[in-house]
Recover the amino acids of this structure.
């Protein structure tokens, strides 16, 4: 959730650099991005708890409005990931790839960043499910299984090929990879047809703006495009343009005009996820332009650091813990809610160790390769 091209809202413990201001302000990490990333991961995890917990309907009786929010609206937090993905894409790549070799190196590096922790989680999920089935327990982790489905997951093609996802929420990673490849193709293709950096920036910006506007007014209204990045480009482009503006590569008017154009589509086809993306862009913009560095409290920073790990492991951990607690949780609404809270705390704990043992070493290894 998470990142390079998308440093995903998640999904990655990654510093988001900003250009020096006119007063030669040193590069600084935007704490607001870490805060939004961590909060988005929590909302996604609780949405899936509300969606899949066996006793979630019973728990809703404790606080019906909160249960309604988790079930129907918390999923829109993923829109924050799209903004951060677009933002970090523009901040992390200052020049287009100059050859197919450089193109492939960038794509493979991003793939490894997402795929190694992701495939480690999938391996764990398949093993746990197999052990549970062999012992006569039904965790309801996997509805359908085939080796072709597993292979499609390895290359983030499961939604495009119609297999669906083995774990909740991982469709986002497929969009993340598609977004990276799309932006690389645009940058690489235009680099071959333009003669200077300024012209390349203008044409790249125009291309992404046109794709984003087409997404807001057309593709995002068509369910058949939902497995593709075209469905979400309007939100990803918001973050990308914000990053370009913060680097002073485009004037403020370009970002404002694009924002106004996609915002108008809400009157024709209201979409809460786009509204959340617009709000996230506004919050990051305001925070960045205050030029007042601030630091997150250590627990919140920790939550941001493990957000990708939490995004990956929460479905598996929730399923196991809730299956164990289900007989007790079914006795009352309060106990059902406590069981969901225990499952979430367990997911945070597992995410911490997954981050320390899998995600963090992967980041260090990829950084050493770049060095």
């Amino acid at each position: 959730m998470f990142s390079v091209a998308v440093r995903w809202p998640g999904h990655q413990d990654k510093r988001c650099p900003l250009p020096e201001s006119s007063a030669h302000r040193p590069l600084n990490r935007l704490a607001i991005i870490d805060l939004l990333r961590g909060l988005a991961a929590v909302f996604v995890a609780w949405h899936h708890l509300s969606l899949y917990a066996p006793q979630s309907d019973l728990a809703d009786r404790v606080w019906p409005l909160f249960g309604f929010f988790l079930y129907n609206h918390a999923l829109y937090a993923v829109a924050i990931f799209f903004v951060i993905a677009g933002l970090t894409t523009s901040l992390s790549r200052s020049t287009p790839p100059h050859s197919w070799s450089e193109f492939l190196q960038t794509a493979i590096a991003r793939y490894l960043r997402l795929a190694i922790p992701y495939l480690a989680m999938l391996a764990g999920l398949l093993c746990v499910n197999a052990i549970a089935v062999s012992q006569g327990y039904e965790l309801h982790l996997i509805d359908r299984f085939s080796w072709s489905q597993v292979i499609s997951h390895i290359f983030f093609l499961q939604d495009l090929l119609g297999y669906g996802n083995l774990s909740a929420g991982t469709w986002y990673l497929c969009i993340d990879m598609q977004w990276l490849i799309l932006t690389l193709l645009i940058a690489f293709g235009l680099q071959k047809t333009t003669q200077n950096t300024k012209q390349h920036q203008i044409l790249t910006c125009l291309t992404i703006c046109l794709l984003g506007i087409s997404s807001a007014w057309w593709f995002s209204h068509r369910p058949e495009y939902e497995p593709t990045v075209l469905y979400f480009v309007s939100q990803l482009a918001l973050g990308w343009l914000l990053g370009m503006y913060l680097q002073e590569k485009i004037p403020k008017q370009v970002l404002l005009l694009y924002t106004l154009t996609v915002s108008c589509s809400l009157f024709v086809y209201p979409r809460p996820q786009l509204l959340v993306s617009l709000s996230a862009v506004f919050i990051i913009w305001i925070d960045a332009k205050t030029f007042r560095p601030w630091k997150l409290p250590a627990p919140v920073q920790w939550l941001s650091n493990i957000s990708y790990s939490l995004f990956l492991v929460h479905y598996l951990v929730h399923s196991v813990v809730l299956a164990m607690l289900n007989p007790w949780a079914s006795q009352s609404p309060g106990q059902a809610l406590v069981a969901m809270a225990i499952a979430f705390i367990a997911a945070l704990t597992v995410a911490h160790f997954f981050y320390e043992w899998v995600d963090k070493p992967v980041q260090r290894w990829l950084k050493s390769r770049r060095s």
Notes: The chain has 14 helices and no strands. The first helix runs from residue 31 to 52. Residues 1-28 have pLDDT under 50 and may be disordered.
